[in-house]
């Protein structure tokens, strides 16, 4: 590739990056604007005057701390449970031969093609029978059954040399010991990647909390953001943008910390293409 082509490629990529950052930058600047400016000059790029008190006002008017805690611990429990159950199921499909494993795995993956909205009614009825409606278990348990987690970790486990397991088995290691002391350490990039993906999905989840939660004290961050303006009887764009900026921070940190792990693991698992 010539220097000219490299320059054009980098220029196009830089322009695309700026276009994708534009909404985020607009949101941050809007979070420092007042209501009067948004009504009189909504297309203004810079706040005039700057109104940093929007952020303290969010803490004064919105139970953001409780919502943050709800979203954080739901995401943490969901990540831990998904990693454990997904790794165990992936190990069974990758290393333990049993009759019908191929068709069963294909059927398992086929469930990814079914939209969540299609199964929401039977899921609601089932959770209602177990008296889990309006509880955080209604958000955690359905998210743990993750076919993508099994598929991704199965790809990593298949890349682990079988000779390591055979050597451990000769030394008297049980299947459980092999799983914990050989398989899991060798698929740690996949576990990191899956953990970040599941965390972001749980943090961003809006549809399931909207359906299953009724008590304001149980609301997650996206649900709190949705109910904020309706409770105030109008839209305060500055406060809404400030609240939105605060909800983005955990996702931004998770992505910045794990972006390299995600790209490397996708390539090594065969999901990155050629």
Q: Topology, please?
A:
Layout: H1 3-30, H2 35-40, H3 54-61, H4 64-95, H5 101-110, H6 116-129, H7 137-144, H8 147-159, H9 162-170, H10 175-186, H11 188-204, H12 207-212, H13 221-232, H14 237-269
Helix pairs in contact: 1-14, 3-14, 4-7, 4-8, 4-11, 9-10, 11-14, 13-14
* Distance, first to last CA: 18 Å
Q: Roughly what is the average pLDDT, rounded to an integer?
A: 85
What low-confidence regions span 5 or more consecutive residues with pLDDT below 50? 269-274
Decide which structural class fits the backbone. mainly alpha
Rg over CA atoms, rounded to whole Å, is 23 Å
| SS elements, strand count | 0
Count of DSSP H/I helices: 14
Instruction: Give the biggest beta sheet.
Output: none
Shape: globular
Task: Bin the strand percentage.
Answer: under 5%
**Helix/strand order, N-terminal first:** HHHHHHHHHHHHHH
Helix fraction by DSSP (H/I, runs of at least 4): over 70%
Provide a descriptive summary of the structure in words:
The protein is mainly alpha-helical and 274 residues long. The protein has 14 helices and no strands. The longest helix has 33 residues, at 237-269.
């Amino acid at each position: 590739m010539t220097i000219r082509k490299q320059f054009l490629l980098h220029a196009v990529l830089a322009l695309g990056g700026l276009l994708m950052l534009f909404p985020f930058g607009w949101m941050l600047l809007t979070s420092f604007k007042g209501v009067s400016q948004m009504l009189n000059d909504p297309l203004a790029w810079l706040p005039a005057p700057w109104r940093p008190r929007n952020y303290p006002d969010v803490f004064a008017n919105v139970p953001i701390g409780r919502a943050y805690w709800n979203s954080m611990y739901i995401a943490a429990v969901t990540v831990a449970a998904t990693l454990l159950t997904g790794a165990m199921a992936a190990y069974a499909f990758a290393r333990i031969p049993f009759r019908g494993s191929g068709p069963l795995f294909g059927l398992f993956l086929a469930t990814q093609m079914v939209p969540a909205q299609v199964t929401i009614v039977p899921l609601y009825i089932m959770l209602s029978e177990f008296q889990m409606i309006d509880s955080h278990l209604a958000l955690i348990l359905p998210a743990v059954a993750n076919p993508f987690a099994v598929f991704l970790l199965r790809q990593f486990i298949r890349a682990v040399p079988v000779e390591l397991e055979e050597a451990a088995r000769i030394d008297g290691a049980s299947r459980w010991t092999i799983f914990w002391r050989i398989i899991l350490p060798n698929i740690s990039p996949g576990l990191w990647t899956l953990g970040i993906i599941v965390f972001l999905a749980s943090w961003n989840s809006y549809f399931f909390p909207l359906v299953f939660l009724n008590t304001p004290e149980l609301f997650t961050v996206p649900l709190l953001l949705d109910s904020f303006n309706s409770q105030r009887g109008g839209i305060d764009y500055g406060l809404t943008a400030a609240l939105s900026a605060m909800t983005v921070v955990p996702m931004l940190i998770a992505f910045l910390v794990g972006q390299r792990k995600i790209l490397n693991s996708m390539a090594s698992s065969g999901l990155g293409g050629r």
